[in-house]
């Protein structure tokens, strides 16, 4: 009955509830502007896109420098419109000269003043003299008597060409050396002037890269890279300039482009590769893992370039190419996701642990994304009270994926209600609705619940103290006197106990610390990760700070400052564009450059964190602490504090001038319409970078209360809620994990206003049994323990580094150093004599030796000694 005593009050209430649910569902289905992203997470994008992202659009004219002129056909080149116009202009010039109106000297002066423009109607970044002196590949082929058609040569002939070009790399003259470098880069690019399609270019690039590696080109270009890094004249010239441009890094860009092309091609595994090519790829991987001639790993040298660039010592370094090469070198040497799963499985097997229940990346591939919470920000953040209450009521509704079940129960439970629901005045009754697929028969949680051993121990201690009144320290088996439900709960917890590889490694370190002589550490296996960490350790803080500086400069929300680093120097031409179209093209190129750099930095940091955590947890903690101390957490939040959907759907790509499309086939002129070409609903690299940053933030904050409090202090909850608008399952899972960490600190009012987010966490994030993450009763969350937690962790990490990579403490004290007791060794040891002794030793000999009377017979008398 209603307030007036009518019996139909309940029926009207049920109709009103059904109407609200139907309207809410239709708003989520029909009013949703952001469809689900068909994004599949992988280690890299497609091989063609990875190669295309190496080159900026400002570098497009340089492709024609490597090989001068268009492809020649058997019947000769077809005349272009420019050639026809130049012929007509020649006839007019001859007529003017013959009639005496213009002299030939005046015509020659005008011709010299005329600026050079390439045939693709793009502005060249080279001067006229430099363009005239660099017809590299064709000129060198003619000079050495080789044919110009690379595809028609035999294998022996191609090898001879490569060896001939390598001989020119040792020349002291810069122009001659640059010709050979550009010619070899053209070969590595697949000799694109002789191909007809992108697939043919990729096939020839793979064939040529294998040939170049067999001939030793990779090692030769590494030596050239080391020479260019130490080239002080180029760095000083760049420092004197007000603005560094593309022309300041020409040699470095050619070297890095060839190295990156070879690494990327050798990284990709082709099923059609013969056995000798597979062995060659393994040899290439082994070469990258070994120290080079300068005593450093290739990855460490490249990270050193990033650090020098950020310090201001080398502003001409092309950061995009350097970071892309660092990323691909790490992928080749350390391995990607599949290699990580294998290493983790092997590590758990060696430690006697069961296999991992699920892999997050693999499980999220088959998960369905959730609809974003209604309202992009919190209901309490600067909104009117009425609007906040409406959003809160809508937030209390179930998700659209669960609405069908509730509505179905209402329809089947009350036939009259169903008839009333089909009235004409119901909201949008005739609108078509997509059918929801039937749920699987074994519908349940996507994750296996986990529990830590310390949680089981805390549960038993609390139960014993409550029901029996005694404590047993570190006892997981004694349940005498406890009620049956408590025993059943303990058995459930024990079935889901999960022990991580990190816990085993920490226990082993504590054991070594307690018993350094009886249980010492055995010889450490020199894995690629171990060698990389040992090489990075002396300058690791500088490397992490440099990477975060570059990431900050590449963030879409960052503002350009006078003292900030210029990561766009290798995309800026010497002369700024003068037309609107060229300005738009340059703007797209610069935005694309930032996105690629953000993708590379996020991938490098995530790869390092994941591999170091599998190798040893204290290596991971050392890197993590330096990232946290360098303000990595607020930096990532700053990255997401933007219109995330605009960032995800940005289209800073011009397909017609991507490599190799810009050099294969007939080239169309870049117009305003070609700038808008592209039908992909999202930008792959931006989604990839966003997921990487979320995964990195999860790794930094997991089980670290002080870092979780940093998320709360920097007000990350509304920022992360905006990220839930992206309908991609993997991105939503990692965002919800970050929200789950801090829910207990956000207060009751926030939880009441964000019940839909709480429901999504329950539905999609793994459950930790006995984890009261939504209520804030955790005794480990005391704020006064935060600083002590970080300090204790730092002490343990420092002891680990000192023991494994530094000089032992007992050797630093001279009292405990071993003494050399062998006569020949002691006598052969060099002795430093003071200046006073050298000046007075003759008088000392005369006074103490020659003038002294010594009775040698006393030495043999009994009892003298």
Automatic annotation (TrEMBL):
Cellular component annotations (GO), alphabetically ordered: cytosol
Biased composition, class Basic and acidic residues, residue ranges: 419-433
InterPro entries the UniProt entry points to: Far11/STRP, Far11/STRP_C, Far11/STRP_N
UniProt region (Disordered), positions on chain: 348-384, 399-449
Span of domain Far11/STRP C-terminal: 483-841
Record-annotated Far11/STRP N-terminal domain positions: 34-453
GO terms of biological process kind: cytoskeleton organization
Family: Belongs to the STRIP family.
Protein name per UniProt: Striatin-interacting protein 1
